[in-house]
Amino acid sequence: MGQLAELRRSQNLLWNLTLRELRAKYRRSFLGWAWSMLNPLSNMLIYWFVFGVVFGATAPRGEPSGLQVYALYLLAGILPWGFFSLVTNLGMGSLLSNAGLVRKVYFARETLVFAQVIFSFVQFSIEMALLCVALLIAGSPILPWIPVAFFMMVLLAIYASGFALALAASAVYFRDLRYLWTIIIQVMFFATPIIYPPDRLDGRLSRPLELIFTWNPMAVFVQAFRHLLYSGTSPEWGHLGYLTVVSVLTLIAGWFIFVGLSRRIAEEL
């Protein structure tokens, strides 16, 4: 509760830090915020060509949308994953990149992490809005499910914030974590059914591994977004409850780690 009160007192700083990130992100860039969509689009094109053209992968037919477009199927999974990856990477470096501020001024250190989360959420919202427009043009009946999709986006932000808090504090003491996390995030990407449908793993893994791959929270997030947007149908409400509980617990655990490690952060920096 003390940390929450401290964070509340730092809300003006949080707002200013977020504005700084938003203004500086694409400063002096010719395309500006268009890069926020061009990056996931380039990833989608690469995976579409390699897996869709070279290896002949196809998307499952969305029900009731009737869509069977591999590119849109990829984007519905790449965008949530890209947001999670962006939050964790930016959050991990938030204390290190603001070492001078942390050493000289006392404030709620979590502010630096949450500023990166809010900034990333703005970019994620732009990307998801453009995806929704593309899906509406393609014929997906997603309009009734947009509020649920937004709730899922908030849940994903909460889930990613827990990782970002833990990584931010840990990276101060263990500088190699940045390189280790690059490897971990790559493994997590291919362990999540983003470039392939989840039923491709049926019968190919041992039961324990199959449970891990199925109930990996990011896998459940991706499937829920695809149900809502690509298929235009309701998510499995049991999965939605599972993600709510996991997201809140992850945030609490990450914040607990951050508070435990933050006592000597200024000295370590």
How would you describe this protein?
The chain has helices at about 1-10, 10-25, 35-55, 70-90, 100-105, 110-140, 145-175, 175-190, 205-215, 215-230, 235-260, 265-269. The protein is mainly α. It has one domain. The longest helix is centred in the middle third of the chain and has 29 residues, at about 110-140. It is globular and about 55 Å long.
Task: Briefly characterize the structure.
By secondary structure, the protein is mainly alpha-helical.
How many structural domains in the coordinates? 1
Catalogue the unreliable spans. none
Mean pLDDT: 84
Radius of gyration: 19 Å
In DSSP terms (H or I, runs of 4 or more residues), the helix count works out at 12
- The count of β-strands is 0
Overall geometric form: globular
How far apart lie the N and C ends? 26 Å
Give the biggest sheet. none
Broad structural category: mainly alpha
- The portion of residues assigned to helices is over 70%
Main attributes?
single chain, 269 residues, mainly alpha
Present the secondary structure layout.
Elements: H1 2-9, H2 11-24, H3 35-54, H4 70-92, H5 99-104, H6 110-138, H7 146-173, H8 177-191, H9 207-215, H10 217-230, H11 237-261, H12 265-268
Helix pairs in contact: 2-6, 3-4, 4-6, 4-7, 4-8, 4-10, 6-7, 7-10, 7-11, 10-11
